[in-house]
Design brief:
The chain is an alpha/beta fold and 373 residues long. Helices cover 39% and strands 16% of the residues. One of its GO terms (biological process) is GPI anchor biosynthetic process.
Length: 373
Amino acid sequence: MKLPLALLLAPLLTLVAGLHTSNWAVLVGTSRFWFNYRHLANVLSMYRTVKRLGIPDSQIILMLPDDMACNPRNAFPGTVYSNSDRAVDLYGDNIEVDYRGYEVTVENFIRLLTDRVGDEMPRSKRLLTDDRSNIFVYMTGHGGNEFLKFQDAEEIGAPDLADAFEQMWEKKRYHEILFMIDTCQANTMYSKLYSPNIIATGSSELDQSSYSHHADNDVGVAVIDRYTYYNLEFLESETIGDLFDSYSYEKIHSHAGVRYDLFKGGADAARSRLLTDFFGNVQNVEIDGTRNTTMIDDELISLSKTIARLSELAREEEMAAKNQSDTKPAPRKVQVAKPLNDDNWWTKKLVGATALVGCAVVWGLGSYFEASL
């Protein structure tokens, strides 16, 4: 017995419907000033890693409040390093900063997440995601109990962040989110989240600080935070669970936190997610499984019949035109007056003038002879 096409495709459509089709990254540094060099290095280290794992610049939003590479205190102008051996220049020649300097504000960050921007906003500054997009949101800076400072001028609170994520869910702007934050008392920033399909992790508990890993004596300041350093070291592993299990107080000097309860399937499903589900590039093609495949088949058949009918009409018109040209009598030759050019026109004028002069001479001679007689 022949099964309907829709029944055969149902398992495939169900599988595809559960997959995501793109990965995006929102990387936010919120600290200005030279002594916060490590926060800029944190963000640029994550930027380099997600690019190396395959997410293109067109799907990375990078927010840098200060340009440490061009700071006059920088002993290595035009560069930013996250390790004292200075093996890798994080600034390099291939960096695309989307929000820079005083563009890095709480308002712009929330507008970016919720897409509440005007038509004049360039595509490079927009998070063009949908309900099949996985988003990695990374934030670093100075914070406290349920807040993160932006450039020592304003703060974003945990409820603000929670409401922004909820708007994203309501507007179908994400499939799953991995939220990572490196700041003092970081775990309090995800305490108010209530939207589904979010995995959250932070560097420190309530009343704990987030510490730097090491300093570069030539640069003169700390160059990276401990939590971010060990995350970057581990990003070659396979699953989210492996990454979180690698956190220890001995490494980070604070108690890293994890939250799974908002994620569909709970801790087991969240821990089994591959790191590349958030850090790597994905280019899946989404098939609309809600549409009736029988209707699609009928439309294709109807379209092919229409094309065949139009082709037949075109052939008939071509044959009719050919027959008409065969029976059509030869056209009669009509003599057409030859147009005058400039040379012909002056020749005829000269001939006419000569004739008039001749007539006048003959008339004058006749009058003379008649008078003499």
